[in-house]
Design a protein that fits this description.
Structural class: mainly alpha
Order of helices and strands: HHHHEHHHEHH
Distance between the termini: 74 Å
Shape: globular
Oligomer: single chain
Number of domains: 1
CATH class: Mainly Alpha
CATH topology: Four Helix Bundle (Hemerythrin (Met), subunit A)
Helix content: over 70%
Length: 247
C-alpha cells in the first residue's frame, strides 16, 4: 500500500502553514491572558493590565487574519471563543480580585463569579447570533463585547493611576457586577469596526489611529481612562437615541 495513504485509504490533505496563523494568534492571546494572572499574583498589576490589553488587541486580529487567508473553520471559531472566555471573563476578574478585592473575600469573590458568568453568557449569545443573519448588528453590538467589557472592568485601576484615588473594594465589586450586567444586556453598544467612512477621509482616520496608538504607548493610563469614558458615553448616546426613536 502507498505510504502516502491514510488508514482510510485516502491521501492526507495538505494545508498551507500560513493558514494556521489565525489559530496561533488566538493561542498567543491566551498565553498573554494567563501570564497576566502570574504577574498579578506577583503584584505587578500594571504589566497584568498591559497583557490583558495585548490579548484584546490580538483578539481583534485573529478573525481578520482568518478571513484574509480564507482559513475560517469551526475549530478556529471555538478556539477563539474559549480563549475569549479565559482572557476576558476569568483573567480580569482575578486581576481585580488580587488588586483590590482580597479584603472583601466573600463579596469580592462573588463579584468575580458574577462577572465571569456574565462574560460566558455574552459569548454564548454572540456565538448563537453569528449563526443567524442579524442586519441590526451592522453598526452596533447587542451588549458590551467581552474584550471591551474586560478593559472596562479594569477602569478602577486606571482611575487609581490617573486621579491617585483608589475605589473602595465594595465599589470595585459593584463596578464589576455592573460591567457584567452591561455585557448581557440588550443595550446597543458601539462597533467601530462596522462604521463606514468616506474614502476621502481615510487618511485622517489613519492619522487618528496612529495618534491613539502613540498616546496609548506614551500615556497608557490616561488613554485607557479617556477611552473608557468615551466608550461609556457612546453607550449612553445610543441608549438615548433609541429612547428618542421609541418615544
Amino acid at each position: 500500500m502507498d505510504d502516502d495513504l491514510t488508514d482510510e485509504g485516502r491521501r492526507d490533505p495538505q494545508l498551507l502553514l500560513i493558514r494556521l496563523l489565525p489559530n496561533f494568534v488566538s493561542i498567543l492571546a491566551l498565553c498573554a491572558g494567563l501570564t497576566a494572572i502570574r504577574f498579578a499574583i506577583a503584584g505587578n498589576i500594571s504589566l497584568a493590565v498591559f497583557l490583558i490589553a495585548l490579548a484584546a488587541a490580538l483578539d481583534g486580529v485573529d478573525g481578520r487574519l482568518a478571513r484574509m487567508l480564507r482559513s475560517e473553520s469551526a475549530i478556529g471559531a471555538e478556539l477563539d471563543s474559549l480563549c475569549d472566555f479565559v482572557n476576558f471573563g476569568v483573567v480580569p476578574g482575578l486581576v481585580l480580585y488580587l488588586w483590590s478585592l482580597k479584603a472583601e473575600v466573600g463579596l469580592g469573590w462573588i463579584a468575580v463569579l458574577i462577572y465571569a458568568v456574565c462574560c460566558m453568557l455574552r459569548l454564548a449569545r454572540f456565538n448563537v447570533g453569528n449563526r443567524k443573519a442579524q442586519p441590526e448588528e451592522k453598526t452596533s453590538f447587542t451588549g458590551v463585547p467581552s474584550p471591551a467589557g474586560a478593559l472596562l472592568a479594569l477602569f478602577p485601576i486606571y482611575l487609581t493611576h490617573v486621579l491617585h484615588w483608589e475605589m473602595p473594594p465594595l465599589a470595585v465589586a459593584m463596578w464589576m457586577v455592573g460591567v457584567g450586567a452591561l455585557m448581557i444586556s440588550r443595550l446597543r453598544t458601539p462597533s467601530l469596526k462596522r462604521i463606514r467612512i468616506a474614502a476621502s477621509l481615510a487618511r485622517y482616520a489613519l492619522v487618528l489611529a496612529v495618534a491613539a496608538v502613540a498616546a496609548l504607548i506614551t500615556y497608557p493610563w490616561q488613554t485607557l481612562f479617556l477611552l473608557s469614558l468615551a466608550y461609556l458615553a457612546g453607550i449612553a448616546a445610543l441608549a438615548l437615541r433609541n429612547l428618542w426613536r421609541g418615544a
